[in-house]
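#struct-queue
[09:14] JT: dropping the first one here, sequence first, then the structure tokens:
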Amino acid sequence: MSNKLIPISNPDLQPVIYAIRIKGHLGHQWTDWFGEATFTLEDNGDTLITGPVVDQAALHGLLKKVRDLGMPLISVNGVEPDPSTTPGKGQADMQDAKL
């Protein structure tokens, strides 16, 4: 019996939308560093980084970037897509996200 993992490729998988909350406001100069993610500077001083993540390795890459910034990580949550706004597009409905 072999212990090797066999990678499974499934082009039909859609990226998962993640909401990453960090303590402090992140400057706009960092937006390109996070790719397709959008930034929301919240009134309480936190930054919400939201965007598609293709797999766990990409999620870990984003979390490494947050670590490298030296800003405290508050939460990481997958956000369910809202099919009523854009069916099949994987857009997030942030009002339904529990952060």
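[09:21] JT: and here's the second one, same format:
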Amino acid sequence: MAARRYAPPVSVTARTTPSDIRQDGPSGLAITWGDGHRSVFAVRDLRLACGCAVCVDEWTGDDRLDPTSVPEDVAPRSIQPVGRYAIQIDWSDGHTSGVYPFERLRSLDPTAR
């Protein structure tokens, strides 16, 4: 029997492990990372950055989400952990299928090095 290959585990580092996630004013989401860096995201930008199959074509990588369809005041209704590697956001516009891996969130912060 051939050996099975499994995907390597998700990298867990202080750089990509949140120590705190909270609302930052009416339109921001703040994540403090294990290495002390603090990222503040505009929540609408996070909604537009959703990488789920509804928002991004799985085969081509082309955006499927029309930004004009996302209300300016979109906001998270709830945020749930997905294992130890991501969060899932239930958005006020009814979108619930997006999973935001911590590594991707950290990469979305232009101030993170």
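[09:30] RK: nice, looked through the second one.
[09:31] RK: The mean pLDDT is 89.
[09:31] JT: good to know. The chain has one domain: 14-108.
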